[in-house]
Amino acid sequence: MAIAFDLNGKRVSIEVLPDTRLLWAIREHLKLTGTKFGCGAGLCGACTVHVDGSRAFSCQITVQEVAGKSVTTIEGLSPQGQHPVQKAWLAENVPQCGYCQSGQIMAAADLLAKNRRPSRAEIVEHMSTNICRCGTYPRIVRAIERAAREG
Amino acid sequence: MAIDSKKTRQSKSSVTRRSFMVGVAGLTFSLVEAGRIGASATTVRNKNITVTPWVAISTDGSVHIMSPAAEMGQGSLTSLPLILAEELDADWTKVKIVPAPPIQAIYGNPGFGGMMYTAGSAAVRGYYKPLRLFGAQVRRVLIENAAKKWGVPVEELTTEPGVVIHARSGRRFGYGEIAAFAELPAKAPDIKDSELKKPGEFRLIGKDVMRVELPSKVDGTAQYSIDVQLPRMLYGAITRAPVEGSSLQRVDDAAAQRIRGVIKLVSLPHGVGVIAETPEAAFAAKEALKITWSRDGKAWGFSSEKGIEVNAVIARNLAQPGVDWEKVGDAAAAFQQADSVYSAEYHCDYAYHAQMEPLNAVALVPTSGGAAEIWCGTQSQFMAVEATAKALGITPDKVKLHDMLLGGGFGRRGHRDEEFIVDAVLLANETRGRPVKTMWTREDDVRNGRFRPLTAHFLRAGFDKSGKLVAWHHRHAGDGITAFQDPVFFEMAKRRDVIAMRGMEASPYEIPNRHGEFLQNDSGIRTSALRGVGVGPNKFAVEAFIDELAAKRGIDPVVFRLDLLKNVPRARAVVDKVTQMSDWRRKRNGRGLGFAYMDYTGTHVATVAEVTVNPKDGEIRVHDIWTALDCGIAVQPDNVVAQTESCIVYGLGLALSERITVANGEVQESNFYDYQVPRMRDIPDIHVELVATPNNPTGVGQMATPGVAPAISNAVAAATGVRLRHMPMTPERVLRALKT
């Protein structure tokens, strides 16, 4: 059975088992690989996307659950990587290996969409869902503060 | 400057040598046919001149430079070509970086046994001199060509980025213009060290440029092997034996076969593979397998809880000799004559790399067999090619490597057998003509992990009547690493387990009689270099013990160390710097400060941690960490700071929470809920300062990791009077220590 949802502003329809995780649908069926597989258990945040404007772990929701909804991935966050969070990420030289950063950026964009001037404590609380094994946390904090400032 | 991300390394070199000579440091300098170097130069429509296999200059002025190291977040993809560009005086905006093909004879690291291997934080350290030389040679060739064309003496010419200049006549030639008419000498020009740039003349080294691949890492376009998409690609999953050395005895795959999309189940010596049309089908089928394993693996019955005690007994047993690492003076005699002798024991548990990209690779074996194409993230391009060739019984030249970005390395992706790549190759061989992307799940990645070993350290120190530290003995008993990780390198190293032993030394502390020895006790558990290698456990013991000795003598731990570092000015400078940064002498209410210093293969690092300990739940809260680091010339200073921050966060996890336990030979942890790595809320304020010295650059990728745990242990002792001697220092262990 085909399941349809909006992906980065375009309607897509895919034939998968309804309980297929959104992560695999996005990455391997629809070939948008910016969203990453990290733990498959909702523990690391590498697979973070936005569903109807709020962040979600794409490894923890099924394709059926997003039927008719709107999904945004890192590829759809901005046309040319020009989202304030993405610009701040480069200004602060955040990424190292880079593997977790799509998820980090999607989590940060979600925070700033709801709280334009988050406090340091609010940033830490919100972002502690996402693991960065390279330990770029101090720079992520700085980048979020910069994006909030320069937004 | 840009990276040609679509181009990847290929094992079949397109380099055609017209003439050839061996240059300095064993690296080759050769002339190659124009336009035939690497992948990207071939696509440039303009004429190219290629002066060494490292550089190609096109008539449009673009300069292609080879990058020989794996990029796993440490920044070598940028910093190595930048070193060459510096001496070439290239215009950085016109530099295109091309990953070097896996040809060790040309691109191997002279500072790492000539291997094309990205590890040991050795890339900048090893390549610095030869890359500067190559850059200077190419610049000289360009100048000589311009001089001939203009009919002026070479001495009258200078360069600015991308341009040769004759100041007297005001004439200028862009490098691209020279490429159009340049003639190449049969032999590389001689460049004396004195003709290289002085640090004050650097335009790129020491100035921060953006790492070339960063834009791709914020818009989702960065390509790791897990992202590869190929026509008609299949998906592989694998269940490996839970105990190393065990093999497949019986498999009931009836349920797995029934899963829609499953194409083939494959019995392998070390496990069972699944090939399916989709990843979800592959993983579901893997879960549905019922497997019986043989019980002949060496680690059957092994438990880490008991194993650590066995190692401790070996470490304490002075009658059992080990393999010497450091032997200076006569430690045995000095202990006999010592006025007072102290001893202490330290333990470290197994630890896991937890790189964020679970291990994976994509492989394609053609229908006719006899060759392979692989897409992988590896710390060693040539090992990936060799392991693939060996698995298929073909020669390495039949393997085409697509070298992808690494979603973290930390030592996990540089084993001689490259087992996660071979998994993909073996499955692809079962579906010839169709590529297979074989992914480990996070659970596979943990359970099939290769770990920093379980170690016990017994240390003794002897003082003479005057209170001088005169004798030192460090005995380290543990699994060992090198023989398992890389048997070839183990033989090259004359069967000395250098990966496990590094850091055992007391030097550069001036103690006249020192003995460090390693006692291998192979449990059968898989082991690996892990960020900081042996230095992590060894310096945990050394730096905590030094602190205990200072306390016994009633001397401030920094003063105690400075006394032992009288003749090591670079050490004293970082110690002084970090005591300033942390305001070391200021008393903190209810908080403890702890100190650690080391010389890690030439990089001097001093660290201070400030902690509080919650007596109710045993939690250690680290408030601040200050690190001062001298790596000589910092090629990319902000990147050195970033690497050091990264090291500190990694060291924090190893110090406080990261622990792999083994019961009955099987790894007990499986994902990030029971193997806890630091999250943002766990991070102290981190303060890093570089102490600039004009020395040749040394490594930074892991040098600040090992100091974190001893600094924290020492801080806890300062705050509570209780000494923690077992890493990780978990709340349970803290509570136990507080009670005794």
CATH architecture heading of the largest domain in chain A: Roll
Backbone CA Rg of chain B: 27 Å
> How many structural units, i.e. domains of chain A?
2
Q: Please, what is the average pLDDT of chain A?
A: 97
Going across the major beta sheet of chain B, what is the strand order? 13-14-11-21-18-19-20
By DSSP, the count of extended strands of chain A is 5
- What is the helix fraction of residues of chain B, given as a range? 25-40%
Order of helices and strands of chain A: EEHEEEHHHHH
- The proportion of strand residues of chain B reads 15-25%
Identify the biggest protein-protein contact and residues per side.
Answer: A-B, 60 and 62 residues
Could you walk me through the main structural features you see in this protein, from its secondary elements to its overall organization?
The complex is a heterodimer of chains A (151) and B (740). By secondary structure, chain A is of the alpha+beta class. Chain A has two domains: 2-77, Beta-grasp domain (Ubiquitin-like (UB roll), Roll); 84-150, [2Fe-2S]-binding domain (DNA polymerase, domain 1). Chain A has six helices and five strands; from the N terminus they run ββαβββααααα. Chain A has helices at residues 22-29, 74-77, 84-91, 101-114, 120-127, 137-150; strands spanning 2-7, 10-15, 48-51, 54-57, 70-72. In chain A, a hairpin with a 2-residue loop joins strand 3 (48-51) and strand 4. The longest helix of chain A is centred in the C-terminal third of the chain and has 14 residues, at 101-114. The radius of gyration of chain A is 15 Å and the shape is globular. The model of chain A has no long low-confidence stretch (mean pLDDT 97). With 740 residues, chain B is an alpha+beta fold. Chain B has three domains: 2-216, Aldehyde Oxidoreductase, domain 4 (2-Layer Sandwich), CATH 3.30.365; 225-297 and 359-439, 2-Layer Sandwich (Aldehyde Oxidoreductase, domain 4); 304-351 and 451-739, Aldehyde Oxidoreductase, domain 4, CATH 3.30.365. Chain B is 29% helix and 24% strand. In chain B, a hairpin with a 2-residue loop joins strand 4 and strand 5. In chain B, helix 9 crosses helix 10. Mean pLDDT of chain B is 92; it is low at 4-46. Classes of the chains: A alpha+beta (151), B alpha+beta (740). At the A-B interface, helix 1, helix 3, helix 4, helix 5 and helix 6 of A face helix 18 of B.
